[in-house]
Structures are given as C-alpha cells and as structure tokens.
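Appendix B, example 12.
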Amino acid sequence: MAKTMGASVVTVYEAVRDLANKDQQGFVTDNEFNSFARVAQLNIFNALFDELKDARRMSRNTFNPSRDKDRRKRILEDLSSFSTSATITKSSEVFNMTADSGADMSRIISISTAGSVLLDQSTVTPIDICYDEEKIERILISNISAPTEDFPVALVSDDIHVFPTSINKIKVRYYRFPMGRSSTGATSTTAVTYTTSGSSIDFELPEHYVSDLVYEIARMIGVNLRDNDVITYTGQEMANKKQAETL
C-alpha cells in the first residue's frame, strides 16, 4: 500500500505568511507557526469525529450523497491511518496507558480480551465499554447484567478497570493523536515542524486538508479571513510546489 502524503508544512506556512502580510499582521516566526500548526492539526482532527457523527445522522435520514462523495466514508478513510492498538497487562488492579502501550491514545475504538487462537478458534472476547461510574456500579450489583468472563465490561476513566477482575490482559484498539510525516510520507514520532533548513516535518493529516489547516492557523493568528483568500493562496502555493517537483 502506498504511503499517504501529509499536507505540506511548507505550503501551509507560505500561505499563512502571505495571508498575515496581506492583512498587515506582521511577520510570523517559525516557532510561532509551529505552535499554531500543532494545535490547528489537533483541532481539525478532533472536529472530524463531530463531522462523523453528523454524517452518520444524515445517513440514517437518507441524506447521503452518491457513493463516491459519501462524507462518512471519506472521514473514516482519513481516520484509518490513525488507528492502532496496544496490548496492556493489568498492574495494581487497573490497566494503565503507558509510554509503551497507548500513551498516545486519543479515542478508544474497542476493547477486548487479549485472547489467542486455539484449535483454529479465537478466544478473544469483546468487552463492553462504560464511561459512567454510576452505571458501572448498577451493573456490578445486578443479578441479571453482572459481568462475567464471557460478557466482560470495562470502565474507562484515567485508567481502565475491567470486570470481572480475573481478566489480566486486554487489547485496546484506538485512534492515536496526529503527529507528523517525513517527506517520503512515513509517519514520524516528531510533531509537525517548519524549518528553513530543509528538515521540516509535514502534517500527518492528508494533503486535501491544506486549506483547512491554513484557515485554522490564520484564524488563530488573527488574520481577517475570507474563504476566497484561503482558496487562492493555497491553490497557488500547491501549484508552485507541483511545478517545482517536475523541474
């Protein structure tokens, strides 16, 4: 599978710089831009989950456009590159997200027992997820819905508590926070960074989010924006970049 190219940090920086100069906001330093860029990428990433909810609601109400323009499908495709998993062993009666297992977690997708494959049969068991401490207390004392090893439940707070407590290892599938991409499209452990030395780290969001990133960063800087300005500048910068790549 071909690597996904991230939105060019150089393209976004040059567009934001030109917009700021046009609006007489003054020079944007590299450090200032990098701080705004990291927050802007996170803001857009988080907004995708709200858009996903709206798209699902529209789908249920049969408002979806044709298949190739399905917004829900496009968002899921964009989020898929942030999907990962971690296997976590219980420590001090809880499952902790650590540097080696899930410290970069943004949102949980699913939780299951770690399990294995025995005689061609998977022993993995899905774990219901609960975020409400009052609800979990009602579940635990219920004669009908009390958790069992066949029907476990997880309470997610600062840590993850799994019931019944006989379960000692779980697998958490989740969306991680966005970081950056190298010039070859490989995921980087370094956050998005613009430098004049040629060692910049691109955004991890795909290329088609360039305009969104420019708009968000310029808005944070305080530029008086019009959509046409963003479209014109980003389109021009992307065209210049493509032309330079062919030379």
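The longest strand covers residues 105-113. The two ends are 27 Å apart (CA to CA).
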